[in-house]
Amino acid sequence: RVNLPMTTPDVHRAMLAFSRAAEDSLDPVIAALVKIRASQLNGCAFCLDLHTKEARAAGEREPRLDALAAWRATPLFTDREQAALALTEAVTFLTDGHVPDDVYDVAAQRFDEIELAHLLWTIAMINVWNRMAVATRLRPAASVDDGPRR
Predict the structure, then answer these.
(1) What does the alpha-carbon distance between residue 74 and residue 66 come to, in Å, rounded to a whole number?
(2) 46-76 in b/e burial notation, b at 16+ Cβ within 10 A?
(3) What angle do the packed helices 113-135 and 45-57 form, to 10 degrees?
(4) CA–CA separation, 84 vs 119, rounded Å?
(5) 33, pLDDT greater than 70
(6) Any idea what the Cα angle at residue 41 is, between residues 141 and 52, rounded to 5°?
(7) Which DSSP state fits 43?
(8) In contact, 22 and 116? CB cutoff 8 Å
(9) 33: how many CB neighbours lie within 10 A of its CB?
């Protein structure tokens, strides 16, 4: 598969700049949760590996990362985080229809206008990264210690 950074370095640099700009003014914990959740939904192993490692390095707790796929069924996430995760799912699954008004409205109540804009840009950005990584079959680097446990 094509190596996008090597083949189109100008676009790759623009995407990196887009990523930085999208997350600006957004709580880094919420940005991490959004990137991980969208990557789970899109089946992007590379981005899951990258963003869960980043989240752990930033101090995110393991129980929250473990429960993220079932965030609705656990009390581990704040109202703001839940609103961001619901919006992430709605924007990621556009094949289900438009983003429901109630999902958008809850996010708009929990985030000021600038934060909401950055949240939407971050959701869009991670979906682009996920789609490019999945399309090119980008895989996380594996080590012997990362193998299956029995």
Answers:
(1) 11
(2) bbbbbbbeebeeeebeeebbeebeebeeeeb
(3) 130
(4) 7
(5) yes
(6) 40
(7) T
(8) no
(9) 24
In this prediction the pTM is 0.92
9 CB-near residues (< 8 Å, 6+ apart): none
H runs (alpha helix) in 1-150: 4-7, 9-23, 28-42, 45-57, 62-67, 79-92, 101-110, 113-135
Task: Let me know if 82 is exposed, middle or buried by CB neighbors in 10 A (0-12, 13-18, 19+).
Answer: middle
Summarised one tens digit per residue, pLDDT across range 105-121 is: 999 999 999 999 999 99
With left for phi above 0 and alpha for psi between -120 and 50, is residue 50 left, alpha or beta? alpha
CB 140 within 8 A of CB 46: yes
Give the pair of three-digit tokens for residue 75. Answer: 């009390």
